[in-house]
Amino acid sequence: MIDLMEAVLGIAAESPLAALRARRAPARAHAEGAWRELVLPPTPGGLSLPERAALALRVALLEGAAPLAAHYRGLLAEWPAVQAAAECFPAVDDDDRLSLLLRFADLVARAPGRCDQAAIDALTAAGLSTQDIVAATQLIAFVPYQTRLLAGLRALQAAA
Fold first, then answer.
1. Kind and range of the H or E run holding 52
2. For 132, which of 27, 46, 137, 159 could close a Cys bridge (C-beta 3.0–4.6 Å)?
3. Which residues in 52-70 are b (16+ Cβ under 10 Å) and which e?
4. Is the peptide bond before 112 cis (omega within 30 degrees of 0)?
5. How far is CA 102 from CA 17, 54, 92, 140, 160, in A?
6. What distances in angstroms separate CA 27 from CA 22, 40, 97, 106, one per listed residue?
7. What is the CATH code for 4-159?
8. Is 60 exceeded by the pLDDT of residue 48?
9. pLDDT of 84-101, one tens digit each?
């Protein structure tokens, strides 16, 4: 199974960085597992796979993580309208579900302290369950972690 961080950075299997990562197999497995569960779960529930990829792309763009954003664009290849919406800044001020999700991503990623009951109620009104909203929030919070992990790995790669 391909490891996302290694794929994004082009880490060769025989490289010193790959060997170092292998020594931290549980941390690597947990990061990869979290990514798969949040973005590509086998049963996505009420938050669709394109919506999940759009949220991830949106936050990767907010974080300035171009290689990660490119990966998420690839996941949206079958849904160009969803990709275009995720890349539109500021998010469209409509009440459709995707626009609400993208504005929620902006709020959680940029100003989580301003996330209030009205933001949650709007998502609920758009048909998202509490479980879906929690999944979206977890995903939005996870992408900055991925960004920092990539930055650290990139620094180690450059130093090798």
1. helix 49-63
2. 46
3. bbbbbbbbbbbbebeebbe
4. no
5. 35, 8, 8, 10, 38
6. 9, 19, 34, 28
7. 1.20.1290.10
8. yes
9. 999 999 999 998 999 999
Element holding 16 (H helix, E strand): helix 16-23
CB within 8 Å of 150: residues ≥ 6 apart: 5, 8, 9, 65, 67, 68
Q: Six-digit token pair at 69?
A: 């954003």
Burial tier of 152 (Cβ tally within 10 Å: 0-12, 13-18, 19+): exposed
Confidence of residue 1 (pLDDT cuts 50, 70, 90): low
Show me where the domains of the chain are located.
Answer: 4-159
* pTM recorded for the entire structure: 0.92
